[in-house]
Each structure stands twice: as C-alpha cells, then as structure tokens.
Description:
CATH architecture: 3-Layer(aba) Sandwich
CATH topology: Rossmann fold
Number of helices: 12
Helix content: 40-55%
Number of domains: 1
Strand content: 15-25%
Number of strands: 8
Largest sheet: 8 strands, mixed
Order of helices and strands: EHEHHHEEHHEHEHEHEHHH
Structural class: alpha/beta
CATH superfamily: P-loop containing nucleotide triphosphate hydrolases
Radius of gyration: 17 Å
Amino acid sequence: MTYFISVFNQKGGVAKTTTCLSLGGCLVEMGRTVLLVDLDPQANLTASLTLLPRSLTCTVSDVLEGKATLLNASQRTTVMGLNILPANASLALLDRALYQSEAYEVRLKNAVSELNPALYDYVLIDCPPSLGPLTLNALTVANLMIIPTQAEYYALKSLENVFVLVNLTRRRTNPGLRYRVLVTMYDRRNAISGRMLERMHDTYDNALFNTVIDIDTKLREGPLQGKPITVYSPSTRAAQQYRALAKEVMEYE
C-alpha cells in the first residue's frame, strides 16, 4: 500500500524541497521505493535531480490536465528506487486555471488512483509555498503532511495559517489527514533558537517530530550535484538526522 506524504509550509526558505529530497533518499536507502512529485512551479525539486525544467515535454501539469498518466510522466533518477514526477513553469498557469474547474482538489488523487499500489512504497509531494489549488490537491491525497519550519518567531506565526488549511482540508476532502511539524535549519549556537524550540514543545508537543534538522551546508551542496544527502555526503550529521526522520515517518504508517 502506498503512503502519501505532502511537504508544505506557506513560508518559503524553510527547507521544504530539501526535506522532500533528503527524506526520499533516506527511505530508498532503507529499501523502500519512492516517487517524488514536484508540485512547485519553481521546479526546484526537479532541478535538484539534474533535470532541466524548460526542456521537459511531459510534466505533472500534463497529469493534472489529464493529458498523460502519472506512470508515463514520471522519470527515473540516478538513485535506484527513487523516481520523480517533474515540474516546470507551466504549473503556475495551471494553478490559476484550476480554480475554474469542477472538483479541482481531486485531480492528483484521481491520477494516483491508477497507480499499482505495489509500485511505490512512498509518494512524497513537494508543495508550493502558497494556499492554492496545487496545495489542496497535495493535501487531499496525503496520509501525512510534514510542515518544515524554523525555530523563529515569524516562522511560528505562519503555522497558524497552515493549521487553518489542515482543518479546511479535513472538512472538505480528506478527513484522515494527519500532520507533524519538523524543525529545520536549527542553529544550536543561537540561544533564541533554543528558547523558540522550547516554546514549540509547549505549544505543539504532540505534533512535533522528535528529530530536529540542524543547519548544514552539505544540504545546500547536494542538489548542485543532483543527489540527496544520503548519496552526496552520507556520513554527515544532516544525513543522520534525516535518517532518524525517515524512521519516525515509517512509524506513522
């Protein structure tokens, strides 16, 4: 049975795409098969795996428009067991057009329903940093939403809007949606970060992952090489932390 995970935060720059790529790499390393779905018009996840968004002739946009199947549009990556459904800038136009379509929130759900459940153990969806139709599609199909966030005041304030979206999705299209908050880009040398993390435990303790992802320059270098952290720099602290996250995720199934 395939388990669907959407990675979302309305605030940009919180390691959303990095988390999607790194978690996918860790799950594959643990013997699971993974499909990454790029639903962000910026197509950073696509580019992180050495694909050129502008040159793609078949993307997730074609799948959502019913012009291609998910199986036909997905591509293999250089990492065995890790495939991607890529994106390009055409997603931005589609995001606006979907509002005019009937039952637009279930486009992705309908597309993945045609997949053989034995093909992928996990589907990880990289959402755009906006509360639009593409994000609603991702949350409608998700078993679990991962919310990456920094231990900073404004990052915590943005979580309020995310929780509103969770409740909306539960009422409209996905009553079983669960979520967990992941602290990323954590600076252990910063006393303020420590205090904000304590505040998060006081407020969201049951919703927090135990794993915390520290700042690590290797996480920024990996996409330049077209590889997840587990392949690019497997012995780093960041790789170990994302492996710990993968183990936690597997416990939520």
